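Let's study today's protein:

:::
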Amino acid sequence: MVSGSGVSARRVVVDARHHMLGRLASIVAKELLNGQRVVVVRCEEMCISGGLVRQKMKYLRFLRKRMNTKPSHGPIHFRAPSRIFWRTVRGMIPHKTPRGEAALARLKAFEGVPPPYDRTKRMVIPDALKVLRLQPGHRYCLLGELSKEVGWNYHETIKVRFVTIDHSGCHL
C-alpha cells in the first residue's frame, strides 16, 4: 500500500480507526494516483487534531460558503464522514483532469464495515496512526462526532449496526 513497499494487491482495504484524517488522505491520494484501488472503512472513527468545539466552529464557517447567485451550484457541503474523507482526498488529487478523475473513481469510503469487506484483511497505515503522530496530551476529535454535530443523522445507526465488528478486524 505505502509507496515503494512493493504491495500491489488488487484492492487494498484500509481500516481508518484511530488514523489522522489528513495524513491518511495524503497516503491514499498518492496510492490512487499510482493506480491502486483503495477501500477505506470505519471513516466515522477517524481522528482530527484539535478539540471538537474548535473543529465544529471551523466546519460551520465552511458551511456558510456558498454561491451568491445560485447556492445549489456549489460548493456542496458533505456531512457524512465517508464523504468528508472523500472530499479531503479529492483536494489532494488533480480531479479536473482525466488522470485525477480516474484516480478518484478507484476510491471507496464507508462508515462501518459493509458486508463485502467485513471478511477481508484490513490494513493499518502506521504513518497516519494517531498514537504515532499526535503528541500525548494534544486534543483530537473523531470525525463521526464532528459529523453528528454538523448535521449527520446516522451516527447512532452506524454505531448500533456495526457494534460487533469492533474487535474482529485483522490488522497488519
Q: What stands out?
A: Residues 11-64+76-165 form a domain with the Ribosomal Protein L13p; Chain: A; fold (CATH 3.90.1180.10).
